[in-house]
Amino acid sequence: MMNIVLFGPPGAGKGTQAERIMNQFNLTHLSTGDIFRENIKKETSLGIAAKSFIDKGELVPDEVTIKMLESEVKSHPESDGFIFDGFPRTVQQASALDAFLNSIDTSITKMIALDVPEKELIKRLLARGKYSGRADDLDANIIANRIHVYLEKTAVLADYYNKQKKHFSVNGLGSIDDITNRVFKELEK
Ligand code: ADP
Fold first, then answer.
1. pLDDT of residue 19
2. C-alpha angle 148-151-154 in degrees, rounded to nearest 5
3. Mean pLDDT, 10 residues at a time, over the chain (189 residues)?
4. Number of structural domains, the chain?
């Protein structure tokens, strides 16, 4: 199995690159943001629980997110591997993921971090807000809060995966194709 964590701040291009990695390596793409948005649309109890956090640019509580992620993995027993996009976002999520993967006899293969400077992130998110229909992309204050939460709670995961020698950085600036090529190169090593 090949299990990839695609890592980076909001607006780094994780979703775009995840789609391409999924096709190239025949992996199941699990985006926690997409799963939450789907649940909000369908007004499930999970969606209702998550919405108030997402609208403010806060993280959905670990307990809820970890449970959801595990059940998504379990619902794809045929999969050759997963690409985790937007998960883990806290140390607690990362260690829960390691323990869970271990319990099903697998592990994280690599964590690929997309490096993009903060100024570019804000530009991309505001541009996406014009067509994404995502309320959390429209408001500069909410975007700023998401980046703040990333720096405060998520950025430390670079160290977490570094300690396991699984952290690989890729320059996230340039054309989408260029970035895809850089990511593929890391994954094919
Ligand atoms: P982006 O990376 O562009 O900010 P996502 O689509 O990955 O957007 O996530 C949107 C929102 O969903 C986040 O701001 C957060 O509220 C919630 N979310 C997504 N993944 C997680 C997670 N792993 N833990 C907690 N909250 C999450």
1. 97
2. 120
3. 97 96 97 96 96 96 97 96 98 98 97 96 94 91 96 97 98 98 96
4. 1
- CATH number for the domain including 175? 3.40.50.300
Does any domain span residue 105? Answer: yes
Residue 91, pLDDT score: 98
Which residue out of 51, 134, 153, 166 is catalytically annotated? 134
- Specify the amino acid at residue 164: Q
Pick the atom of ligand 1 nearest to 14's CA.
Answer: 2
Ligand 1 center–CA 76 separation, angstroms: 21
Active site residue 128: yes
- What is the CB neighbour count within 10 angstroms for residue 143? 22
pTM of the complete model: 0.95
pLDDT of res. 98 = 98
Domain-located, residue 128: yes
Q: Which domain holds residue 75?
A: 2-184
CA of 54 to the centre of ligand 1 (A): 7
| Pocket lining: 54 vs ligand 1, CB cutoff 6 Å | yes
Task: Kindly state whether residue 32 falls inside one of the protein's structural domains.
Answer: yes
Q: Is residue 189 part of a domain?
A: no
